[in-house]
Structures are given as C-alpha cells and as structure tokens.
Amino acid sequence: MRIGELATRSGVSVRALRYYEEQGLLAAYRSDSGQRHYPEPAADRVQLIQMLYGAGLSSRTIAELLPCVEAKVSTPESRARLAAERDRIDAQITALTHTRDRLDTVIAHCGTPDSGCAWIADQDVAAEASYSAAP
Amino acid sequence: MRIGELATRSGVSVRALRYYEEQGLLAAYRSDSGQRHYPEPAADRVQLIQMLYGAGLSSRTIAELLPCVEAKVSTPESRARLAAERDRIDAQITALTHTRDRLDTVIAHCGTPDSGCAWIADQDVAAEASYSAAP
DNA sequence: CTAAAACCTGACGTTGACGTCAGAGGCAAA
DNA sequence: TTTGCCTCTGACGTCAACGTCAGGTTTTAG
User: Fold this and answer.
1) Integer distance in angstroms from CA A31 to C1' C21?
2) In chain A, which among 20-79 make CB contacts under 8 A with chain B?
3) Three-state secondary structure along B22-55?
4) Phi, psi of B36 (to 5 degrees)
5) pLDDT digits (tens, 9 = 90+) for B107-124
6) Can you tell me the distance from the alpha carbon of B32 to that of A69, in angstroms, rounded to the nearest whole number?
C-alpha cells in the first residue's frame, strides 16, 4: 500500500506519516523509484501511534515504547518508562475526572434554563460573592 | 498580594500570570506605580485556570467559560459550550482509559523481569509475528 | 501517448503557552 | 543612601506536530 492509501485508511495526513517516519516511528519499504510502500499492519501501527500521541506522549517517548508495545519486547529501562507513562496517564485520568465533575456541578447548578439561576448576571449576587474578571 | 507571591502560592510562573491577564483570564488591581495586586481568591482562580488548561481547553474557551464556572452565571451559548467541553473531556477520559489498559496489558505480559519474555528480542518470534520498525 | 493524480525532497510557516532577555523603575532594610 | 530584590513593558525565542508550498519525478486512467 502506498502512502496516500495508508493516510486515508488511518485517517491521518500524508505529511503526518512522513513525519512519523522521520521520527523513527513508522518505517516503509521503498520501490525502485523511491516511493514508500507499507505492509498491512502499518495501519494498526498508525492507530497505535495516534493513541499514544493522544495520551500526551512525545515522539521520542513513543519511539522508545513502540517496540515494547507492539512486539512485547522490553528492557528494564523500557519497562520503567512504560510504568511511568502508565502512571502519568492514570494521574491525567484522575485530573480529568475532577475537571469533568466540576463542570457537571456547574451544569447541574445552572444548566437547566428553567432553573431560574441563569438570569442573575450583572446583579448584586454575582458582583460581590465572587472575584470577577473586572475588579 | 503581589504577582510574585501569587506565583509561588499557585505554583505557576510570573510570566504565566501576566499571560493570563493578557488573555483576559485573570484581572489585577494596579497600585499607583503600576504594580499588580491580587485579592485572595485569585489563587483559587489560578488553580481553576490550570485545571482547565490541563483538560485541553484553550485560552479563548477558558475565557468564555470562566465566569460561568466561577460565578455560576450562564447564557444559552455558554451552557452549550459547557456541555460540549464536558463531553469532550468525557471522550478524552475514555480514550485515555483505553490507552492505559493497553499499556497495562503490555506490562502484565512482559512487565515482570522474571517472566522470561523479556529476552526474546532479535529472535524469530519478534521478527515474523509483528511489523517491526525496520522492515 | 498524454494528462491528471499521486509521490518525492527540502524548506519555510503556524500555533499556543509560555521562557527569556533588556532596560527601566519601585520598595524595604541597613 | 545604597543595596538587593521585585516589578514593569516590550519584544523576540522555543518547541512539537504537523501545514503548506515549490519544483520535479512517477504512476495511472483514458
């Protein structure tokens, strides 16, 4: 499969795929004319890369952990990195959960238009009870 | 309280606080000489800002939603944004949970040094079973 | 065979949340 | 008063993950 097809299949841009190769995340066979050709599992690999990017890992970290995740091959150092990133993600989930709960509280408190609390803007309660953006 | 104290109290840099002001997220009183002075609740506000940045919101979005979250004041549009961001965070939590579980699987599979699966690198299993980074 | 579409390398542009530096002024202690 | 730290504005620097453009080659469809 050539780069365009892999791009549409995996939902990322052609530029991104070339960038992944540049970062050592995704290799390609080359035809005689120099065009990249990918085997089928490359699509899965791209999905995995996207997944790790989405979790906030950098290219460098992904490059270190990819063989570990894909081929189940690990060294003591990579295992430590793996555990560290897992814990980081866990902490991130906890933080996001708190943030979501906070937003939920706000939504529950004045999220329903008929709750009557949506029209207190520019009145005394809002003005003195809290630290506004315009002191 | 002046900017330095707020910075150490809330754990962000002085530069960040000035940036927040520039973005309309954090206001300050000014002394005659032009120095910023903050009331006590500013620390909480900074924590909240950090929380929302951490959830991936942009300055613009935070500026829109902050009065809503802090003063519990909302308009129909802000309520929609609020719900949208909540859903985005929820999706992010789901994705992160999947990523964490995947890492957990890897860790469980060859995370213990004595599991015997940590030394199969450069052997046949790894070579044919998966798509390595060097085809 | 030819034109369109896809691909190549190389290089510069973008964006957001700050970091950092320069030069000038403010403030409390000794 | 002077020392030393804090603060100010303004402006340029950074970094990562790409976007975009230029100029040229390759593949494919008709």
Assistant:
1) 50
2) 24-29, 39, 41-42, 45, 51-52, 54-55, 66-76, 79
3) HCCCCCCEECCCCCEECCCCHHHHHHHHHHHHHC
4) -75, 140
5) 888 655 544 444 433 333
6) 59
Residue A75 backbone dihedrals phi, psi, to 5 degrees: -115, 170
Q: What is the DSSP letter of B121?
A: T
Is B86 within 8 Å of A104 when comparing Cβ atoms? yes
A29-55 per-position pLDDT tens digit: 999 999 999 999 999 999 999 999 999
**Residues ≥6 apart with Cβ < 8 Å to B131:** A39, A41, A42, A45, A70
**Residue B40 — pLDDT band, cuts 50, 70, 90?**
very high
Using the CA of A3, which nucleotide's C1' is the nearest one?
Answer: C7
> Binning pLDDT at 50, 70 and 90, where does residue A74 land?
confident
Please compute, for residue A26, the number of CA atoms within 13 A of its CA located in the half-sphere on the CB side: 27
Nucleotide nearest to A34 (CA to C1'): C8
Percent of chain B at pLDDT > 70 equals 81
**Is the CA virtual torsion A55, A61, A62, A68 positive or negative?**
negative
DSSP characters for A21-81? Answer: HHTTS---EE-TTS-EE--TTHHHHHHHHHHHHHTT--HHHHHHHHHHHHS----HHHHHH
Higher-pLDDT residue of A56 and B118 is: A56
β-bridge partners, A49: none
Phi, psi of B37 (to 5 degrees): -130, 135
Contact B131 A42 (CB under 8 A): yes
Q: How confident is the model at residue A112 (pLDDT cuts 50, 70, 90)?
A: low
Residue with tokens 């979005």: B61
Q: How far is B26 from chain A (nearest CA, A)?
A: 6
